[in-house]
Amino acid sequence: MNWLHPAQIGFRVRQTLVDWGFGARLLVQLFALSGPCLRRFGLVRDQVHFLGNYSLAIITVSGLFVGFVLGLQGYYTLQRYGSAEALGLLVALSLVRELGPVVAALLFAGRAGASLTAEIGLMRAGEQLTALEMMAVDPKLRILAPRLWGGIIALPILTAVFSAVGILGGYAVGVLLIGLDSGAFWSQMQGGVDVFKDVGNGMIKSVVFGIAVSFIALLQGYVAQPTPEGVASATTRSVVLASLAVLGLDFILTVMMFSI
Questions:
Q1: What's phi and psi for 227, nearest 5 deg?
Q2: For residue 207, how far is the Cα from the chain centroid?
Q3: In angstroms, rounded to a whole number, what is the distance separating the alpha carbons of residues 93 and 44?
Q4: How far is Cα 155 from Cα 95, in angstroms, rounded to an integer?
Q5: Which residues fall within 8 angstroms of residue 150, CB to CB, at 6 or more apart?
Q6: How many separate domains does the chain show?
Q7: Residue 12 counted as domain residue
Q8: Can you tell me the distance from the alpha carbon of 199 to that of 229, in angstroms, rounded to the nearest whole number?
Q9: pLDDT digit string (tens) for 158-196?
Q10: 8 A C-beta contact, residue 163 and residue 59
Q11: Average pLDDT, the chain
C-alpha cells in the first residue's frame, strides 16, 4: 500500500484528528465527574495507595542516586570557580525545579502508567467495562476517574519525596564524603531557594505531569484492542507517549515559569 498517496495521507490525518477529539472529550468527561468521584474518596484513596505506595521504592532509590551524582558532579564543577560552598544551592535548585518533577514523572510513567494501561486494557479484553455498562454503572465514574485523581494526588507526593531524598544524597556526598562545611551547605540552600517560585513551580509541574501521565495511561488502556497483543501494544505506547508528553510539557512550563 502506498502511504504517500493523497487519499492515504488524508485518511491518516482524519483518523488522527478523530483520536485527538475522542481523547479531549474523554478528559473533559473525567474532570466533569470529579465531584461525584471525590465524594467517594475511598476509591481515590485506594488508587493513591496503589499508584503511590508501590512506586515509592523506585522513586526513593532513584532520588538518592541522583542526589549522589548531582553532589559529585556539582562539586567538581563549582570547585573550578571557587564556589564549592554553593553545592547545596545547586543540588536543591536542580532537584526542585527540574530533575525532581521530570525524573519522578518518567519513573511514574514507567511503573504506574504501564500498570494502569495494562489493568484497563485487561478489563476491556475481559469485557468487564461492557459488563459495568450493562449494569448501568458508568465505567468512567467507577473505574477511570478514581485512577486519574489517584495519579494527580500521588505524583506530587512522590516528587516531593524524590527531591527530599536527592538533597540528602547531595548532602551525604558533599558534606560527609568530600568534607564541605555543613552550615554552608544548608545556609546557601536556605538563602537561595524560594518556596513559592522554585518549590511551588516544581509542584505545579508535578501536578500537570500527573494529569498527563495518568490520562494517557488510562486512554491507551480504554481504547486498547481486546487481545493480548493489543494490551501489550497499548502498554508500550502508553509509556512512550507519556514520557514524550512529560518532556514536552516540561519545556513549555519552564518557559512560562522561569523565562518570561
A1: -135, 160
A2: 8
A3: 32
A4: 15
A5: 44, 46, 47, 48, 50, 51, 52, 214
A6: 1
A7: no
A8: 42
A9: 999 999 999 999 999 988 888 888 888 888 888 888 888
A10: no
A11: 88
- The amino acid at residue 16 is T
Sequence-ordered list of residues with C-beta below 8 angstroms from that of 132, at least 6 positions apart, any chain: 138, 139, 142, 143
- For residue 27, give the nearest of 167, 209, 219, 171 by alpha carbon: 219
Q: Is residue 240 part of a domain?
A: yes
Amino acid at 124: R
Q: Is the four-CA dihedral 160, 161, 167, 171 of positive or negative sign? A: positive
Mean pLDDT across the stretch 56-65? 94
Give first-to-last CA distance, the chain, whole Å: 48
Residue at grid coordinates 465524594 = 39
Cell of 200: 511551588
Residue type for position 176: L
Q: What is residue 22's predicted lDDT score, i.e. its pLDDT? A: 85
pLDDT tens-place string over residues 71-95: 999 888 888 888 888 888 899 999 9
Closest CA to 105 of 251, 255, 243, 252: 243
In a domain, 5, yes or no: no
Q: Would residue 195 count as lying in a domain?
A: yes
Which run of H or E residues covers position 237?
A: helix 228-254
Q: In which domain, by residue range, is 41 found?
A: 20-255
